Amino acid sequence: MNDAERGLGSSIREVLFTQQTIATRVGELASAIAHDYKRRKPLVVGVLSGCFPLMADLVRGIDIPLEVDFMAVSSYGGNTVSSGVVRILKDLNQAIDGRDVLLVEDIVDTGLTLRYLLDNLQTRRPASVEVCTLLDKQEARTERLDARYVGFRCPNEFVVGYGLDYAGLYRNLPYIGVLKPEVYS
Ligand code: XMP
Ligand code: MG
Q: Which domains does the chain have, with CATH numbers?
């Protein structure tokens, strides 16, 4: 039997963050962001594709005026190891000079993707750029950077679910977990 018959959960070795745990933490992040950005009308920028569940849950918890935009970058191809090669597949729809930008990421791993994005956005003269990431794999970091808002510290393992994929799959899992090793073979 496979995922199609037994459900996606049959490929998960271990659940790291349950649906409820994620919902509670995302609510806390949203409250902190609403407090910090009061009267600044931030531009909340989701980094596609992994950000989509977090963006949807997060912005609905931020009870102040804000705008939303998206960027898409490719950093991995089909691999599970960061290549450091970042390409912008979809850019912002608007200029950000003078804006308070909040970048929303699913996960910061080596930090190479974020480093590239931050450097790129800084050239456009925003008033500020901060980062909100659901997961922070600090052990894997090669770049010196910190996200202002972090959901959870993540062990240095490849994780899937809640937007995070393996080869395009598992983004629709409502929780975050580690795949069974046989899934990769
Ligand atoms: P870097 O290393 O540039 O990586 O900080 C950031 C991007 O890599 C992806 N990534 C993952 N995707 N499970 C995933 O599904 C993981 O454990 C993982 N680690 C990194 C992700 O797209 C992120 O934006
Ligand atoms: Mg990915």
A: 3-184 (3.40.50.2020)
Record the pTM.
0.93
Span 17-69, pLDDT tens digits:
999 999 999 999 999 999 999 999 999 999 999 999 999 999 999 999 999 99
Share of the chain above pLDDT 90, in %: 81
| Dist. CA 30 → ligand 2 center (Å) | 24
Residue 108 beta carbon below 6 angstroms from any ligand 1 atom: yes
Bridge-based pairing of strands 100-108 and 128-136 is parallel
**Interval between CA 158 and ligand 2 midpoint (Å):** 10
Any idea how long the chain is? 185
**Closest Cα to atom 22, ligand 1: which residue?**
50
- Nearest-atom number in ligand 1 for the CA of 164 is 15
Evaluate whether 83 touches 110 at the Cβ level (below 8 Å).
no
